[in-house]
Design a protein that fits this description.
The protein has ten helices and no strands. The C terminus is likely disordered. By secondary structure, the protein is mainly α.
């Protein structure tokens, strides 16, 4: 007879499910609003293209995370490596699109006078579709590497462990950990560094410009000063959420802390809370998306809107 999960485990499982469903609803809303605009106008701005791709990848990421965690909790270990391949794909897409969005805002908004920034500012909007395609290609190559590790190493480790061959289990485990250390280092570090550098540069540029504005027009109540202050707060919030998500993933990938039972679910809640809150932040920060939020019931019930 299988042992029932403890009360803390059930509580964190419920929180994780509610959090994932809320995140999927948010990101589904983002994709619906932007997709509806694309169908109506046959065009999307460069930033909206990136946000739509980011929302779609996060929607899939939360869904696959739910499936993977419940399969693991039900001891369907042989199917978990295959599901994890899709998780690696959508996680990589989420990281790269987040980095691309940060780089886009950095280039478009920052006031650096270097010729490189001037050239990028002129080219970036037209290059976004190509950059999205490059991100998809990079993530496709990464998922091939991930599938190799998940499909070959995972089941082999389970089968060897069932035969009691501890020496081979140790060797397979060592190869598995080395492989994924190199893989996760590449997948996680490069887009995170791009995101970090872009966000920090934009914060520095806004702080410098805000200082100049205050020298010319002292007073925190001026509309321009308030706009820059709100932008700085928004960037700081984004930096905190995305940095925490990266750090939590890095700790999980390197197995620095091994969580068991309810602590595993608590850790999952912490990891996905960051991108869930960041998606909420994207909705509330955009006037277009806030307007779409008010008309969301009409999108859900077109018959009522037309009557």
């Amino acid at each position: 007879m299988e042992k029932m999960p403890s009360s803390p485990t059930l509580i964190f499982m419920a929180i994780f499910c509610l959090e994932s469903l809320a995140a999927m609803l948010q990101n589904g809303f983002l994709v619906t609003v932007l997709g509806r605009e694309w169908v109506r106008c046959r065009n999307l701005s460069a930033s909206d293209m990136i946000v739509a791709c980011l929302a779609a990848s996060r929607f899939c990421l939360h869904g696959v995370a739910m499936v993977s965690n419940f399969l693991a909790s039900l001891d369907f270990w042989r199917t978990v490596p295959y599901v994890n391949t899709f998780w690696d794909l959508f996680n990589a897409l989420t990281l790269w699109f987040t980095a691309l969005l940060a780089a886009f805002y950095c280039v478009k908004i920052s006031s650096f006078s270097h010729p490189t920034f001037a050239w990028l500012k002129w080219r970036i909007s037209r290059s976004v579709p190509r950059l999205i395609q490059v991100s998809l290609i990079i993530c496709g190559l990464e998922v091939i590497s991930s599938a190799t590790g998940n499909v070959l190493f995972g089941p082999r480790k389970v089968s060897l462990n069932s035969y009691g061959n501890e020496t081979l289990v140790y060797r397979v485990q060592a190869s598995f950990e080395l492989y994924f250390f190199l893989y996760e280092g590449f997948v996680l570090l490069i887009p995170f560094l791009l995101f970090l550098v872009s966000t920090v540069l934009l914060i520095v540029s806004l702080c410098w410009h805000l200082g100049q504005m205050r020298d010319r027009r002292p007073g925190p109540c001026h509309p321009s000063t308030q706009a820059y202050t709100v932008a700085l707060k928004s960037l700081t919030v984004s930096l905190i959420f995305c940095t925490l998500y990266f750090l939590f993933l890095f700790v999980s990938a390197l197995k620095i802390i091994n969580f068991q039972n309810h602590w595993h679910w608590a850790w999952e809640v912490l990891i996905y809370a960051n991108i869930c809150l960041h998606s909420t932040f994207l909705v509330l920060r955009s006037p277009k998306l806030k307007k779409g939020l008010k008309t969301w019931p009409q999108l859900q019930c077109p018959c009522a809107a037309g009557s």
